[in-house]
Structures are given as structure tokens and as C-alpha cells.
Amino acid sequence: DTIYVLNGPNLNLLGLREPEIYGSDTLDDIAGMLEDRAHDLGLEVDVRQSNHEGHLVDWLHEAQAEGAKAVLLNAGAYTHTSIALLDAIRSIRTPVIEVHLSDPMTREEFRHVSYVGMAAVDEVKGLGAQSYVVALEKAAKL
Ligand code: DQA
């Protein structure tokens, strides 16, 4: 089974970007951690990143079309703005788990709303890079 790991805007700069908030691991580092854990769990991961909202919508549709077991979605700032992502998650049967490195609820008020969270089956946040690994373990159990 394959788990799609979809990452939104600015996550290509992980490791450089506000490391005091997001940590020093790059997205490639996280992809490596996920590949190792997926191997142990008998799963495969397909890790992608885009700064473009529509790409994330297309990849959610693709996850369903390709029969992915689940999607881990860190939609970055689109989490807090994107009705299109909310609708896309509602448009597929593939379960989506919301992921964040930081805990948006402890940050600025504009991060307190999550459109992704309105449709996701679960969420993992505030654990840094480990958030992705914990989310993968949850996806394995779905
Ligand atoms: C984030 C939290 C979002 O509020 C922010 O816009 C991001 C990263 C996180 O992983 O902590 O880009 O999704």
C-alpha cells in the first residue's frame, strides 16, 4: 500500500525556514525518515511538495484514482485559507490525516482555523518532523 505525503507552500524551504519554529530537518530528511518507517510497516510513501494550491487539489484526486491507502497532508498556510482543499478532501474517499510541524493553535489567531481539519480523519501537530512519522503510524492502522 502507498501513502501519499503531500506538502504545501514554503515547505521546500524546511531546514532553512524559521528553524526555531520548524526545526532543522529538510523535507528530504523527513522523506528519508518516512521511507525507513514505511519499510518497517510494509508500506510505501510518495512524498511531494508544491507551492501551488491546485497541484495539491490534483494530487488529492490522484491519491484516490491510484488507490492510495491514505494521504498525509501538510497544506502549510493553505490549511487556514483553502476551501478548495476542504472540498477536495470531501470529494475523495481516501482518508486524509492533517499534519503540522508546529502547533498552529498556539500561534497567531489566523492559524486557528483549519479548513483541512474540517474534513481530515485525524491530525498530528506540534511534534516537529516526528509529526509526520506519528501520522504515518496512524495511517498504517486505518
Ligand atoms: C505549518 C503551519 C502553518 O500555519 C504554516 O503556514 C506552515 C507550516 C506547520 O507545519 O507547522 O506553512 O503547516
UniProtKB/TrEMBL annotation:
This is 3-dehydroquinate dehydratase. It comes from the Bacteria. SUPFAM superfamilies: Type II 3-dehydroquinate dehydratase. Belongs to the type-II 3-dehydroquinase family. Pathway: Metabolic intermediate biosynthesis; chorismate biosynthesis; chorismate from D-erythrose 4-phosphate and phosphoenolpyruvate: step 3/7. It catalyses: 3-dehydroquinate = 3-dehydroshikimate + H2O. InterPro entries: DHquinase_II, DHquinase_II_CS, DHquinase_II_sf. PROSITE patterns: DEHYDROQUINASE_II. Its EC number is 4.2.1.10. The active site is at 22 (proton acceptor), 100 (proton donor). It holds the Pfam family DHquinase_II. Substrate binds at residues 74, 80, 87, 101-102, 111. CDD domains: DHQase_II (cd00466). Catalyzes a trans-dehydration via an enolate intermediate. It is an enzyme of class 4 (lyase). GO terms for molecular function: 3-dehydroquinate dehydratase activity. The record marks 17 as: Transition state stabilizer. Keywords: Amino-acid biosynthesis, Aromatic amino acid biosynthesis, Lyase. Homododecamer.
